[in-house]
Write a structure and sequence with these properties.
Helices cover 26% and strands 17% of the residues. By secondary structure, it is of the alpha+beta class. The chain has a single domain (12-143), classed as HIT-like (HIT family, subunit A). Strands 1-2-3-5-4 form a 5-stranded antiparallel β-sheet. Helix 2 (66-84) packs across helix 3 (130-142). The mean pLDDT is 96. It binds guanosine-5'-monophosphate (5GP).
Length: 144
């Protein structure tokens, strides 16, 4: 499955949204869910996903919902900077397998950058320690 195709309701993020799989949640409202990436490219890597959609990527997502999604991305980015004292933030998003997408429910990456620490490659991150993720999520949530 890549840029064109049917939405697969069994994808990981759909399962997280239905509560069938756990996640380390940071923030949730009626439009979006934000949670920690379990294979972080840097300390505090998190994801924002829209609820109530079958858009696999940005191209399929209704333009009139982009404002709410990216308002949440901005809110989370501000909180990440405040909570983790990072030196920069990457906001990124992949569409289709050749572009690097592996989970086919639209999502936006918020990746803190630290001046003296290397960035792990996309899909090169190691599984995170869940206790560390929970601590980061709590700190980010407190800064929202
Ligand atoms: P993509 O490659 O599609 O842009 O991003 C998918 C992201 O989801 C990757 O950064 C990957 O580390 C993350 N990921 C994959 N499986 C899981 C999971 O089960 N839980 C969480 N929280 N993140 C996941």
């Amino acid at each position: 499955m890549s840029l064109a195709g049917e939405y697969d309701g069994a994808n990981i993020f759909a399962k997280i949204l239905r509560g069938e799989m756990p996640c380390v949640k940071i923030y949730e409202d009626e439009h979006v869910l934000a949670f920690m990436d379990i294979f972080p490219q840097s300390q505090g890597h998190c994801l924002v996903i829209p609820k109530d959609t079958t858009a696999r990527n940005l191209i399929e997502f209704p333009a009139n919902r982009l404002g709410l999604l990216f308002a949440a991305v901005q809110k989370l980015s501000k909180a990440v900077v405040k909570a983790l004292n990072c030196d920069g933030v990457i906001v990124t998003q992949f569409n289709g397998a050749p572009a690097g997408q592996t989970v086919f429910h639209l999502h936006v990456h918020v990746i803190p950058r630290y001046a003296n620490l290397p960035l792990q490659p996309h899909h090169g991150g190691k599984p995170a320690d869940m206790a560390v993720l929970r601590d980061q999520a709590a700190r980010i949530a407190a800064a929202l």
